[in-house]
Structure formats: C-alpha cells, structure tokens
C-alpha cells in the first residue's frame, strides 16, 4: 500500500497534535504547557488547511493561536510565574483522568463508526464577497455574527482564567 502526500501529511500533523496535547497536560511548567498548546492549535489549523477550510484555519490561527495563547503567555509573564511548577498529581486523580480519556475515546470511536458517510454529487456553489460579507454580518441560520460574539466571551473567559492560574499567591 502506497501512501499519498496528503495521507503522509495527515499522519505527521496528527502525530504532532497528539504529542503536543499530551505534553500540554503533563508538563509541570506553566509556560511550557502554554507553548505546547500553541503548537497543538497551529497543527489543528494545518488540518483545516488540508481540508480546504481556509477561513476556519485563519480563524484558528488568529483567534486561538494568536489570541488566547498569547493572552495566556502574557498573563504568565506579567505575573512573574515563568518558572512556576505545578504540584504533583495524586494517583487517584491520574486513574480518574485515564478512565475519562478512555471513556471519551470509546465514545468518539463508536460515534464515528456508527455514522453513515455518503458521497455527494452536488457541485460546490460559487461564492463572492457579497455573500461572504452577508454571512459574516448575519445573525440568521447561516450567519457568523453570533458565533463571533460567543468567541469573544470565550476569549474574555480565557484571559480571566489565565490570570487566575498565573496569579501570584501572597503568603
């Protein structure tokens, strides 16, 4: 079996996402965890580019990789916790985390395998800038204004969460 270029790139990008995801949640240093998260988000944008979802990839890069992670890193640097290490996790928490991961993986695999994928013969529609502009500003079924508002609240929550995590504890 000979792999195509797209399959090889998918395997590489998926491996990068899995590796840096594990490093993100297992790193003891908060700044390294934020940097590993940045690599995960950039690699996810690479998957979107492979699927020809350029708009979604651009949103991934600008909003998540360029916005949320930068805010997390700035809040860590501004609160001078660059070398902070997380405390050791107890064995019971590790067991429950492993069970949650296995349960989530089984649920995802069952859901993917039960879905019936079907090919379509419908051609893609031609888009112009007016249609894209109306979609970006619309609140209707195919509008993007409401999701962007939700994302802005997510960005604010991520910024507040990053500040709380990186906040200096006074003794």
What class do helices, strands and sheet pairing give?
mainly alpha
Q: Give the strand content.
A: under 5%
In one word, what is the shape?
Answer: globular
CATH topology: Four Helix Bundle (Hemerythrin (Met), subunit A)
Largest sheet: none
Compressed to H and E, one letter per element, the order equals HHHHHH
The CATH class is Mainly Alpha
Unreliable stretches (pLDDT < 50, length at least 5) are: none
Report the CATH architecture: Up-down Bundle
Radius of gyration: 20 Å
Continuous helix count: 6
The CATH superfamily label reads NADH-ubiquinone/plastoquinone oxidoreductase chain 6, subunit NuoJ
Description:
With 171 residues, the protein is an all-alpha fold. It has one domain (5-86, 118-166): Four Helix Bundle (Hemerythrin (Met), subunit A). It is built from six helices and no strands. α1 (5-26) runs antiparallel to α2 (30-50) and α2 packs antiparallel against α3. 12% of the residues are buried. The model has no long low-confidence stretch (mean pLDDT 83).
